[in-house]
Amino acid sequence: MISERVTGSRVIRTVVRAEAETVVALHARARAAYYPDGVPDDGTDWAAAWRGAIERTDGQVLCVVEDGRIVGLASFRTVRGVPADTVDLLQFHVDPGRWRSGIGSDLHTACREQWRADGRRTAVLRVHTDNLRAQAFYARHCWVPDPDRPRAEGDHHLDLRLDLTGDPGTR
Fold first, then answer.
1. Among residues 145, 138, 123, which one has the least CA distance to residue 171?
2. DSSP symbols for the chain
3. Model-level pTM?
4. Cα separation of 171 and 141, whole Å?
5. What are the residues facing 61 on neighbouring strands?
6. Is 29 exposed, middle or buried (CB count within 10 Å of its CB: 0-12, 13-18, 19+)?
7. How far apart are CA 164 and CA 167, in angstroms?
8. Around Cβ 85, how many Cβ atoms within 10 Å?
9. CA pair distance 48, 21, nearest whole angstrom
10. pLDDT tens digits, residue range 76-129?
11. Are 51 and 59 in contact (CB under 8 A)?
12. CA 125, CA 111: separation in Å to the nearest integer?
């Protein structure tokens, strides 16, 4: 697992439990920015969910720290019932005030490096169909619609897949 990776003035590292509230706040800011009509309340206790993600043994939460602040997050894990060489990217957020500054790309590169080091060959994720900014970001980083998980009618998410065995570049 990544313990610390320095990219310029940015440090990418594993989140620790004491940072859960900071993670929850960044997650809320990011979601508010890409849900212009308001963040849907699905009843999720996000503080508990993030604490659980941080403590999982079958996953990891990475963060980007810049100027002493967490400005980016990625949470991923393996999932029962899918091939062991597949990782699920569950959350990926950059502080909205820092969008288009390279934080997301640096974090994505760190995730790819970690996944490859862990022996993963494929990554999957779900992105909201209205989140066109995220879809464009993922497309630039070589994610494609997942042919094994076609979108069902009425589903508000798009399933994407990333081949980790090929060129690590972006488009």
1. 138
2. --SEEEETTEEEEE--GGGHHHHHHHHHHHHHHH-TT--------HHHHHHHHHH-SSEEEEEEEETTEEEEEEEEE--TTS-TTEEEEEEEEE-GGGTTSSHHHHHHHHHHHHHHHTT--EEEEEEETT-HHHHHHHHHTT-EE-TTSPPPTT--EEEEEEESSS-----
3. 0.88
4. 6
5. 75
6. middle
7. 8
8. 14
9. 10
10. 999 878 888 999 999 999 999 988 899 999 999 999 999 999 999 999 999 988
11. no
12. 13
Q: State the pLDDT at residue 32.
A: 85
Sheet hosting strand 86-94, strand order edge to edge: 4-7, 10-14, 59-66, 69-77, 86-94, 122-128, 157-163, 144-145
Say how many residues make up the chain.
Answer: 171
Whether the CB-CB separation of 72 and 95 falls below 8 Å is answered with yes
CA distances from 6 to 11, 16, 102, 103 (A): 4, 17, 14, 12
Among candidate residues 117, 121, 122, 130, the one with its CA nearest the CA of residue 161: 122
Sign of the CA dihedral running 81, 83, 85, 87: negative
CA distance 53 to 62: 11
